[in-house]
Design brief:
Number of strands: 7
Helix content: 25-40%
Largest sheet: 7 strands, antiparallel
Number of helices: 2
Structural class: alpha+beta
Radius of gyration: 15 Å
Distance between the termini: 22 Å
Length: about 140
């Protein structure tokens, strides 16, 4: 079952993103992977620029994870990014931390943590929710 492994990645991704939002008000996309032995590694995507486009960083991370997956080095991966979404029961978009999680068994899930920046740098978080994701790392033909 992949859920505990994806939860373990989420427990690495969300806290770091929250820390960056609190300290800097934003964060660049970053990732984490779980090796075949269960060890989790945090990963930054370096594209050689100080302020790269987020999609460039996401593409670099995705390709690196695909290569590791093809070699059987990882069994799960996640990419965390700042996004805009409409939470369930609401009608307007809000900022959210998005963790795109994938497992070698084919499970892909997008987990959102909505947030709003308030007065004096205070950040208020909403309820976590998830939707089905689109496999990018372990997808057939992706590796």
């Amino acid at each position: 079952m992949s859920r505990p492994e994806l939860d373990a990645l989420l427990n690495v991704l969300f806290p770091f993103a929250q820390q960056m939002i609190q300290k800097r008000g934003e964060f660049f996309p970053f990732g984490a992977s779980m090796a075949s032995d269960g060890e989790i590694a945090s990963v930054a995507g370096d594209v050689g620029e100080e302020r790269p486009e987020s999609q460039e960083v996401i593409d670099v991370l995705t390709e690196a994870f695909r290569q590791q997956a093809a070699l059987g080095e990882i069994k799960a991966a996640g990419i965390c990014l700042d996004a805009r979404t409409v939470p369930p029961g609401q009608t307007e978009k809000t900022d959210a931390i998005l963790a795109r999680l994938e497992h070698q068994d084919g499970e892909a899930i997008d987990v959102f943590l909505p947030y709003r920046k308030g007065l004096f740098g205070k950040v208020k978080y909403g309820e976590v929710f998830a939707t089905a994701g689109a496999p990018q790392v372990f997808a057939a033909g992706a590796v």
